């Protein structure tokens, strides 16, 4: 009898110890999870950025060295413009960028960037390369807060400066210019008459808006070719799949009559050759202005402003610097004037 009582008490004690151990283990897990949550929250809220003490004086920054002593190729590599076009744009930019005097002249801290060429060089370097804010801070000697503020103001001023500026204009070719381009195309490919240009589209990535309704409203994932296999317009779909109007992209000419195959093959080669200019045109801007390879702002007005600036700058660069892949390697002749 006593042995049974001892065994019962022992089992009861072991059971109690087991339950306490389980509760203690669960409590340890909860404490560990809470510690991780607090530590993660602290790390997320902590921001690491450059301070003014580790930056050069803006008057002795890398940009000032390039501006005062750099060669033409150094300035082109940094801003995409040579010195003469840069100074021409600088004169226009200075009319719209006004320094904000937000300090007391008697004893306040002066502004970091004292010259207009520093501000214009900053925004052009931001557009031209894919540098992050840290590298731009090191190159121009300004802290992150100043960099962000100056970039926003400089982009708005640059948009005003480029708008209405003749060398940076976006215009449809005149009838005289279209005829000149058609003669250039016909000189390279006699089969293509009255063909002056090709059009193609371009898709860029944008940042994700925080509002879900805005995400759905501006979702750009549904491209036009996705609807070709739908039933929104069966009559139009049959026209799209017509091999006569839209030949097979794989170059399958066996379905054509034998008598027209050589001509169709020659015409296809001519179209492919001339259409290469449109392919180059799509990539020519982002090869110069690497900022297009990054996600564009989610704000519609800000994105529109940046795209307008970049495309106008590309036109200005072609017209003033004279660097054009299409003109120098594809279409060039007496009808290809330097300025249009």
Automatic annotation (TrEMBL):
<protein>
    <recommendedName>
        <fullName>DDE Tnp4 domain-containing protein</fullName>
    </recommendedName>
</protein>
């Amino acid at each position: 009898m006593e042995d049974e009582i001892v065994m019962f008490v022992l089992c009861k004690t072991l059971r109690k110890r087991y339950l306490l151990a389980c509760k203690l283990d669960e409590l340890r897990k909860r404490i560990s999870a809470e510690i991780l949550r607090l530590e993660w929250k602290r790390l997320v809220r902590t921001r690491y950025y450059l301070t003014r003490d580790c930056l050069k004086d803006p008057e002795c920054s890398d940009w000032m060295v390039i501006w005062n002593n750099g060669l033409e190729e150094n300035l082109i590599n940094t801003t995409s413009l040579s010195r003469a076009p840069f100074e021409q744009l600088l004169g226009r930019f200075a009319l719209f960028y006004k320094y904000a005097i937000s300090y007391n002249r008697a004893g306040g801290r002066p502004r970091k960037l004292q010259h207009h060429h520093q501000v214009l060089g900053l925004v052009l370097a931001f557009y031209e390369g894919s540098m992050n804010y840290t590298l731009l801070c090191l190159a121009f000697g300004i802290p992150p807060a100043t960099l962000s503020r100056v970039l926003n103001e400089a982009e708005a001023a640059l948009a005003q400066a480029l708008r209405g500026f003749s060398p940076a204009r976006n215009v449809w070719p005149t009838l005289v210019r279209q005829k000149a381009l058609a003669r250039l195309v016909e000189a390279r490919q006699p089969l293509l008459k009255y063909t002056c240009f090709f059009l193609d589209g371009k898709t860029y990535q944008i940042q994700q808006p925080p509002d879900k309704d805005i995400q759905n409203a501006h979702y750009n994932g549904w491209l036009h070719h996705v609807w070709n296999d739908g039933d929104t317009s069966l009559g139009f779909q049959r026209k799209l799949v017509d091999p006569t109007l839209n030949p097979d992209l794989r170059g399958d000419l066996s379905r054509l009559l034998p008598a027209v195959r050589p001509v169709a093959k020659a015409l296809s080669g001519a179209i492919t050759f001339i259409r290469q200019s449109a392919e180059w045109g799509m990539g020519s801007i982002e090869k110069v202005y690497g900022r297009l390879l990054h996600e564009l702002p989610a704000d519609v007005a800000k994105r529109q402003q940046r795209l307008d600036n970049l495309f106008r700058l590309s036109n200005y660069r072609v017209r003033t610097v004279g660097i054009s892949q299409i003109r120098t390697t594809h279409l060039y002749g007496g009808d290809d004037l330097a300025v249009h």
